[in-house]
Structure formats: structure tokens, C-alpha cells
Amino acid sequence: MIPIKVLVPSGVLGLGFDIEALNNGIKNNPDIISIDGGSTDSGPYSLGSGTSKYSRAAIKAEWKSLMIAREKANVPLVIGSCGTCGTNGMVDWMENITIELADELNQNIKIAKLYCQQEKNFIKKNFQLSKIFPLNPAPMLNDQLIEEMTNIVALAGAEQIQECINTGAEIILAGRTTDTAIISALPLMKGADPGSSWHGAKVVECGALCSTNPTSGVVMVEFDKTGFTVEPMSKNAFCTSETVAAHMLYENADPYILHEPGGYMDVTYSNYNNIDKKKVRVEGAKWHLSKQYCVKLEGAKIAGYQTSLLVLLRDKKYVENVKKWTDKLSKFLKKEINERMDIDTSEYSLEFRHIGLNSTLGELEKNIRSPVEVGVLCLITSKNQLSTEIAKLINPFLLHFPLSSYEELPTFAFPFSPVHSDRGCVYEFALNHILELDNPMDAFQIEISEV
Amino acid sequence: MLTLGEKVRKIRSKNAGPFWITIDIFCGNKKIYKEVCNKLKNSEIINLLMISEQQLKRFEIDDLNVIKFSFPRKIIQGNIFDRDMHGAQLAVLLSEMKF
């Protein structure tokens, strides 16, 4: 059955890919087309709210190209981590898009949906049974924290994707999945070298980022009994032993070890060789099976309701004394908020960031110089929905607050009306844990439909 | 005196999941790699990033002429006090270091 060829159209659905390169890939007879649909890269909002970071229109346009390519190639098409966060709602959202497209393209397809979302009671029960372990660093877990989370997902691995492949589905819509599992699943089940199956998957999980032309997107990786070969599908992209090896560094805290459900891979002794101008051959990765089968958990909870205000300071005296100004203003405002609204500082946070001075690096900034102007970004986050009211109370003081009582009231620059911007509900990641399972499917469900 | 950024080919930083940051220093050639490996002390990185010694992981990757540092984030990615979710601007701190 091997070699197995996996076509990866890009690092994530929604990012775009070179359509000519995709067609090239199809001509090269892949055994499966695999693409990632998610990430935690943009923070906790997507998981917290259970929504996609990319627009539905962008997802639909790209998914259409892939559904057309899939029909031509007559192989399974797999997407992992549907709708950025991979909640059940986002798997259904992706199914909805797929059904619309199947109708438009006049395709009859069997769909397998892999659900990865976790019930709070299931997580609580496993926590009590000591089946949940913290990674480093991890928030302190307890029943109350589990209760506060809006969404919890478990990251599926190769085993759950293989279950989906075994249903004979033409399209697999998976909830939260490790970036690599959608790529390694087929070669692993067809007898390719396990270490190389995971290593190859890791190399191409960001599409053509492992090549000289990252935006071209499409790469093909071929797995066999001793290693894998990677090749970008765009005529303007090349893989070199360095571009391929360097990808193990990217977004990885450890450049040699990658943990996956069921074990970890070690690429310490891998070797990378250019076999021609475009292709790189890699061998030597090792797969270490763990004693217990564990999957990683992700969860997000509401951090509060946030409102922001922005004021611009151009007056030289205020620019030079902006830190002093906001310190004084902050103290004054906390007293006003307490007196007028009867809210204690434990119920909200008030933060000023100085754009132009150190708003990017904060206390780590080493290079503070007085700029021409400063933007003062005021952030209010409250436990209940009072942040808008607090912002409205702050508004006149942000406009007119003087450095000393001996001067006329200054007036700074407000660039917006309304001055405040409600950012709504904001979230935070609340889990960095793994869950031990007796059987890989214990925390996952598959549903089949035909359209 | 050169900065580290002027000495090497490229320095990048990136979140590695929501709980870690990783920094890659691509030295460009073996000579500069050896020099940076010898001269760049963990104590300088710890001071620069305001983290403890136990939190810093250092990797020297001979084949790629890369020095890599990883450490857990003080503020979890996307929390209300986070300023740079991808941590990609942190690389500037190392780039601007006197070397």
C-alpha cells in the first residue's frame, strides 16, 4: 500500500493557496488531501465564543476549490480543527458549508464528522478520577474552573482520524485535532515508518512554510517504510534541507521532541538530504509509544467584558510626562468610580498603555525615548457588563485631566465618536492539561451523513 | 559595537502554543554560530526577558547554526494583560542587544 502521498494545500483553510500548484498536486496522484482548519494562534476568543476567526466567505471559496480537487483526485479530503477552534458547533458550521457546495457543484458525498467537544461533567468526573494531568505551566484546575469554561475540546490524534477514514467517507470534517494527525493518519495505518509519519506531518503542517516560497501553500509529502520525501507543488517553490529542517524550530518550544496522542516523536538523529532541486528526503525520526494514551485538552472561560478608549497626546509637556499623567489620572479615576458607581477595584481592571513609548513590550522595553506624540489606550475589563458605564465615566477626564491644578484645563485629541469601543466578552485560556483515555474513541464521536 | 541583530542573519520569536514563547537565532554560518554560542550567556537572556533561570531552555542546533531559547509566558496568550499575542515582537529585544 505504501508509499502514501498526502497533499497539503496550505497551512490553514482561509489563508489562500496557489490554485495552479493545487492542480499540479492533483496531477501527482495523492492518496488523501489534508488541511488544517484551526489554531490557538489568535488567542482564546475563537474557542471561548465557539466561532471561526476567518470569514465564512473565505472558507467557502477555498473549500470549493478543494471539493473540486477532491472529486478529480477521487480520494478523501480531511479538514482538522474546523472553524479555528474545533467545537461541535464549528464542525456543524463546516458541514453546512459543505452541503451548500455539494448542491452547487452537484456532488454526492459521504461525510464523516468527528466531534471533539467535551461535556463539563465528563471533565469533572475524569478530574476526580485523577485522569487529568497538568502540563507546564497550567492553570490550577478545580470544579469551579471547569464549570466557568464556555467550551472545552480534546485534540484528536491519528487514531480518531483513522476511524473516520475507515468509514469510507469522502469528506472528513474533524473538530479539534493536532495539526499533524490529519496528515500522519493515513501513512500510519498503511504501514509507513511511524517516526517519519509524524515528522513528515510536522514538516508540512504549515503548507509551503517548509519551502522557499511560503505563500504558494501547496506541498506533497510521500511516506514509506524508511522515511519521507517532501516537495512543494508550485513551480516557484523549492525545498532545501535547511528550509525543511528549520521547520522543526517553528512554533515548537523543543526543536527535537513533539508530543502527540499516544506518544512522542524524536528527530534528534534525523537526516535531511536534497534529492534534487525541489525535493528533500528525510529519515531517522523515532516514535516512542507512551504507556498511557493521553489527549490534550483546551478550554476557555470568560475573562470579563471589555471597553477601550483611545486619546492622543501631542502637547510636548504631556508627552514628556505621560506616565506621570496616567498614574495620577488612574488614581483619581479609581476614587471617582468607587464614589459615583460604588464599585470596588476588585470588580474591574483599569489599564493605560502608552502607544509610542512601550505599549508592545511593556516593562521589558529597554529603549524608551520621548516621541512626538503618544496614544494612550485605556482598557477597562469588568466582571459584569459595567465596562461601558465605567468608560463613559472616564471619558471627560481622559479629555481634560490636567497634570497640575495650576493650569487651564487641557483638551487632548479624541479620534473617535463614540469615544469608547465596546469589545464585548473577552476570554482566557483555562486549560493546559492532558486527559488519559482507556480507548482513543472514549472522548470522541463520529457521525456519518450523505448529501 | 555591533548589536546581536546586526551580527546574525535573522532573529525571530513566536508563541509555541498559548503557554510558551520560543526565540530562534539564525546565525547564518558556522563561524558566527560558534561565536554567538560562546559569548551569549543565559544570564543576559534571563535579565532581558525578566524570567528565572529555571524557566529558560537553551538549544544549540549545530546542523542549522541556530541557537534557540524557549520559556513559559508570564501572561498566557490573549489574557487581558497580554500585549503581543504571537510574541513575535520580543525578538527585537535580542536584536537590539549589544554584542
User: Largest sheet of chain B at a glance?
Assistant: 4 strands, antiparallel
State the major sheet of chain A.
10 strands, mixed
Any idea what the radius of gyration of chain B is?
13 Å
Average pLDDT of chain A, rounded to a whole number, is 97
Helix tally of chain A equals 13
Order of helices and strands of chain B: HEEHHEEH
- Main-sheet strand order of chain B equals 1-2-4-3
Helix and strand composition category of chain B: alpha+beta
The oligomeric status of these chains comes to heterodimer
The greatest interface here is:
A-B, 43 and 38 residues
Q: Going across the major beta sheet of chain A, what is the strand order?
A: 12-13-9-8-1-2-3-7-4-20
> Proportion of β residues of chain A?
25-35%
Distance between the termini of chain A: 29 Å
- Counting DSSP E segments of at least 2 residues, the number of strands of chain A comes to 20
* Rg calculated over all Cα atoms of chain A: 26 Å
* Strand content range of chain B: 25-35%
Could you give the topology of this structure?
The complex is a heterodimer of chains A (451) and B (99).
Chain A: E1 4-8, H1 19-27, E2 32-38, H2 45-49, H3 56-73, E3 77-84, H4 88-105, E4 110-115, H5 120-128, E5 132-134, H6 143-148, E6 149-154, H7 158-166, E7 171-174, H8 181-189, H9 194-204, E8 219-223, E9 227-232, H10 241-246, E10 257-260, E11 263-266, E12 271-274, E13 280-283, E14 286-289, E15 293-313, H11 316-320, H12 322-341, E16 348-355, E17 374-382, H13 387-400, E18 420-429, E19 433-437, E20 445-450
Parallel strand pairs in A: 1-2, 2-3, 3-7, 4-7
Antiparallel strand pairs in A: 1-8, 4-20, 5-19, 6-15, 8-9, 9-13, 10-11, 11-14, 12-13, 15-17, 15-18, 15-19, 16-17
Chain B: H1 4-7, E1 10-15, E2 20-26, H2 30-39, H3 42-49, E3 57-61, E4 66-72, H4 91-95
Antiparallel strand pairs in B: 1-2, 2-4, 3-4
